[in-house]
Design brief:
Length: 142
C-alpha cells in the first residue's frame, strides 16, 4: 500500500495530540523528511498546539482551594437544609385518629385543627426542600 500525503494529513491530528502509536509516529516522521512543505506545516501546527496548551494550563492552586472550600460549604448547607426540611415536614404530616366502639369515627391531619402553626411549618419545610434541591442540582451541574 502506498502512503500518500492525504493519509499523512489525516494522521497529523493524532500525531500532534501525542496519541499516535510508535509505528504511526515513525511513519509520519519518515514521510515529512521527504516533504518540506508538510514539515513546515507540522512545525506551525506544533507551535500552535504548544501555545494552546500553555493557554489551557492547570488552574492556580488558590482557585482549587477556593473551589474545595465552596463545595464543602455547599455540602454543609445541603445537610442542614435536609435536616430542617424533614424536621418541618414530619409534624405537618401528623394526624389524629378517633376510634369509638371499635369503629373509626374521625381521621384528620392536625393541620386542620391548628392551621397557623402547621401551615407555618409547611411553608418552612417547603422552603427547605426547595433550597436542598437547588443546591443538589447546582452541585451536579458543576
Amino acid at each position: 500500500m502506498e502512503i500518500t500525503r492525504d493519509i499523512i494529513l489525516d494522521l497529523l491530528p493524532v500525531y500532534l495530540a501525542g496519541e499516535a502509536s510508535p509505528a504511526t509516529r515513525t511513519l509520519v516522521e519518515e514521510f515529512i523528511q521527504h516533504d518540506a512543505d508538510l514539515a513546515q506545516r507540522l512545525r506551525e501546527l506544533s507551535e500552535q498546539n504548544l501555545a494552546a496548551l500553555h493557554a489551557t494550563s492547570r488552574p492556580p492552586p488558590e482557585l482549587e482551594l477556593k473551589s474545595l472550600r465552596r463545595t464543602r460549604a455547599l455540602i454543609g448547607w445541603q445537610r442542614w437544609l435536609f435536616g430542617l426540611a424533614i424536621g418541618f415536614t414530619i409534624p405537618v404530616l401528623s394526624f389524629e385518629i378517633d376510634i369509638e366502639n371499635g369503629q373509626l369515627r374521625e381521621f384528620h391531619f392536625l393541620l386542620h385543627n391548628h392551621p397557623l402553626i402547621f401551615g407555618t411549618a409547611l411553608v418552612l419545610g417547603a422552603a427547605c426542600w426547595l433550597g436542598y434541591y437547588r443546591i443538589r442540582r447546582q452541585m451536579r451541574a458543576g
